[in-house]
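User: For my dataset I need records formatted as: sequence, then structure tokens, nothing else. Please produce one.
Assistant:
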Amino acid sequence: MDSVASAIQRLSDLASTPHISRLTTAFSAAGFELALVGGPVRDAFLDRELADLDFTTDARPDDILAVVKPISDAHWDIGRAFGTIGARIDGHTVEITTYRSDAYDGATRKPIVQFGDTLEADLVRRDFTVNAMALRLPERVLVDPSGGLEDLVAKRLITPGAPERSFGDDPLRMMRAARFTSQLGFTVAPPTALALHALADRISMISAERVNEELSKLVSSANPRPGLQLLVDSGIAAIVLPELPALRLQIDEHFHHKDVYEHSLTVVDQVIELEESRHPGEEPDLVLRLAALLHDIGKPATKRTEGDGVVTFHHHDVVGAKLAKKRLKELRYDNDTVTAVSRLIELHLRFFGYTEGAWSDSAVRRYVRDAGPLLERLHILTRADVTTRNRRKADRLSFAYDDLEQRIAALGQEEELAAIRPDLDGEQIMQILGLSPGREVGEAYRFLLELRLEEGPLGAHVASERLLAWRAARR
């Protein structure tokens, strides 16, 4: 954490930038208060990037519009019902919101917006004390009515008022607590943690879309493990993502299977490490991280203890893919994300047959064909799925996958594996066989595709001969 003096200086420098100076001057000239609030103030003390600048004011939405119109390149009022007006000033986007003192309807937990009159009252309604600080402008005075700075130094999350009241008003704040433990490296203060446990069932009152947003932010953070553990330990995950706590299978006394829950969290950790090493500087891959988190959720349903006491999970990849698809749809993830995550889970065991004997070129082609555009993600997930403490076994699997990737690269150069197609297209098939569009054309296409996968490129002439022989044999 930065010293208080250096953090205040960062905020002061930010307030001196031309677009914020213009904004501050305009509100002051119109007789309204203005303050930079929430995340940017917190992040200045944590030496994090100051982005998504939020301001609050005693001006009502119509007044905010009147102030920003003359100084903005563009403005919008999509959040007007909640008192928020957006504007672009000198190419920079800002949002200004009227002081609020929210009430809740007691049923849907949607806020009934009530505008407030003071900055202090606006701050104490916020989720956590570390987010309840503001820099009053143009005075550049820190306003901290709930002791957020002290909690920031202690790296703890605590609500400005009674946590039962805060989480009861908006249960999604409980998921935000989990997210902040991962994003900021904070711990939840004991009274707040007790309220999480006591009110976990209230999360069922929150819409799937809002849960989706918080879960995605958590999983996309640099260290999702603490937040995920908090969701599980508090009982919240049992409601929003029950497949995760279900992974805490009872380990048999002979240790014939590992702790699947801890294994899954470790796979997420290792996926993030591989993301950063293989694709440095790129945005977090939500699809890959969700697949890592959920890749073994088929195990509870497929767990069997054989006669010799060995525990098995046959077909947990297929079962897990179906379960993941169902859960992600219920959480309102888009179709592309649902399809990609479930497909990765379905494929995540495919590689392990490679170590039992060298694959033929045909098997390598099928591996690439089945993965399609998910191949790089499958590489990362499969490597991350190795969590054994047996160094010899881990090295053997790593070397085997190195070999597989090298063979894919070599075959890719020779055969354009990324776009495997038959040697003949549909038009050529119809011309050679004298067919019109129909089922037999599709069957012929699939025959040639299998031929291509088994034997590699044949050329149009050989493919034509094999196609005619295939039809003759069918007749």
